Amino acid sequence: MSSLSAKIQDVFNEPACDRNRGKDAKARKEGCSKPLTPGAAAGGCAFDGAKIVLQPITDVAHLIHAPLACEGNSWDNRGAASSGPTLWRTSFTTDLTELDVVMGQGERKLFKAIREIKEAYGPPAIFVYSTCVTALIGEDIEAVCKRAAEKFGLAVVPVDAPGFVGSKNLGNKLAGEALLDHVIGTVEPDDAGPYDINILGEFNLAGEFWLVKPLLDRLGIRVRACIPGDARYLDVACAHRARAAMMVCSSALINLARKMEERWEIPFFEGSFYGITETSEALRRISALLVKKGADPEILDRTETLIAQEEGIAWKKLAAYRPRLQGKRVLLNTGGVKSWSLVHALMEIGIEIVGTSVKKSTAKDKERIKQILKDDNHMFEQMAARELYAMLSEHKADIMLSGGRTQFIALKAKTPWLDINQERQHPYAGYDGMVELVRQIDLAIHNPIWRQVREPAPWDRPPAVKDELSSTKSATATVQAFKKFAGATAVDFGAC
Ligand code: SF4
């Protein structure tokens, strides 16, 4: 068995995953990917998944050993943010051509590319990604990386996750394996302390981890490494000296968390920073784990004080939105953000959940949603676009929260929509993030455009309206007539 096959089998056998444990040995070997429907979008290959996990390490050069299209497919397709370096967003590829393949020039071209990046940018590390073409022609990326690392004196990390081996989710896990094999534990920090933690599976989308980090700073807790959001190579290399870890997105990096616990005795828990209660609970559990690992127990009291202060401020800000949003109905159609924590967060301010997708939720997540919603009638695995449209156009929801792919269904049904997936523009984590989420929902629902687009078109209006509109002489009179019948309040027709 090749080392990649062995690695994949290892990843498919995940003791920390409930769904995985629920399968028999044969089903486990097949992984979690469902067969693709012909004509449907696959939702990302394994290479794509590996790149998603590793690219937010911001001072690293990410070099794709492939024909040009693979990098075009995966480059910067998430809204992760960096507080400093910009190298991670520079696109590097060996741009392999047919001639390179036929002439067997791939490895030579890769070595040359590594040298060029080293000379032009001097990064602390270069991550080299294999892809379908380079894996199929048998490029020995690992050997090239090893040789380049010796020759150029920098870390050159092979990421062996060619697209054809499986889904995006498998690629996420193979990226975690690459970090375990080649990065984490390779540097010894000289400042390890009893309050060091790792945050795993946090991507710092729209910079939202920056809303959480100040809370940890106030407690004197240092984030040794946030993997991968806004991470630096050296921090990741030193991550094995953290005392505790929090897993933010379990399906992506559960193997990393479990293996770090086994190798370096870093206990972890799974939590979320979405919603006020969940944020408080996450802070409590971080402090409790640190105390278990030898930190001063006084941190528990300080954590409670901080939680009381921050919750008070957040609830005060949210009080202004409660009368405007009480009883509003939300349809959640997402796989990216943890549905259960979002469901909980929205219900905290009186919003009603009319449906939530659980397609990418684990069994534990589904159980949590069931407990929060009190029944499972509102949970759906997947809703076809037609059903989604029918639900929205019959006004069974006041707003849909989803990713960009389904936004046009909502817009066609003349229903407010808010992006909560990886491309979103607004940060929703922590106490301030929750206030921002509610603010955005309020803005979307109460945007005057919805009233206007739901008005019948002029040619569909009753004859009396049409007559009055057509009999008016001046532009001002037309505007006044239109206002009268449209009941327009928000648009300044006079300025047209
Ligand atoms: S790795 Fe393979 S599946 Fe993924 S983008 Fe490249 S060619 Fe396509």
Automatic annotation (TrEMBL):
UniProt KW keywords: Nitrogen fixation
Species whose genome carries this gene: Mesorhizobium robiniae
UniProt-listed Pfam families: Oxidored_nitro
Pathways involved: Cofactor biosynthesis; Fe-Mo cofactor biosynthesis
CDD domains assigned to the protein according to its UniProt record, in alphabetical order: Nitrogenase_NifE_I (cd01968)
InterPro entries: Nase/OxRdtase_comp1, Nase_comp1_CS, NifE, NifE-like
Residues of the Nitrogenase/oxidoreductase component domain: 45-443
Functional description taken from the UniProt entry: This protein may play a role in the biosynthesis of the prosthetic group of nitrogenase (FeMo cofactor).
The name this protein goes by in its record: Nitrogenase iron-molybdenum cofactor biosynthesis protein NifE
SUPFAM superfamilies: Helical backbone' metal receptor
Family named by the database record: Belongs to the NifD/NifK/NifE/NifN family.
Keyword Cytoplasm: no
